[in-house]
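If you are new to this repository, start here. Below is one unmodified record pulled from the training split, so you can see the exact layout before writing a loader.
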Amino acid sequence: MVQLATVGLAHPERVDYHPSGWLSLRALLRPSEVGPDDVFADIGAGKGRVVYQAARRYGLKRVIGVELSPELAAEARANIERHRRRLRCHDVEIVTSDALAWEVPDDLTIAYMFRPFTGATFHGVIEKLIASATTPTGRGPTK
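And here is the target side for that same chain:
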């Protein structure tokens, strides 16, 4: 666990970092549900546990971790590099960004979050994901 106040990121809508359980992703996403064109993003990636699991277990096109804390993002990058030879998907990126400022890639097909934030931040990120899935440009419904 990492308290966000200790890394200068305390905010009423941000939740302190607790990693997902080791079996969480496996329980939620079966390999048969994932194809070689799928792009996976863990929004609020922390130290990269789920990013690693997605890249290790699934035959994905690309895996992205989005993390606000530069310290946690650096740990995630180090964890991925330390185990890179074990990954099925080698196109793995850890982005240091606020989830609301992160530009959702047009090819994103799977988004994962484990309680990284609440309130307006959560709703804003969900709206961005819905807009991304609604149109090819990610700019919301077309007229």
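Two things worth knowing about this chain: The chain has one domain: 33-134. The chain is about 30% helix and 15% strand.
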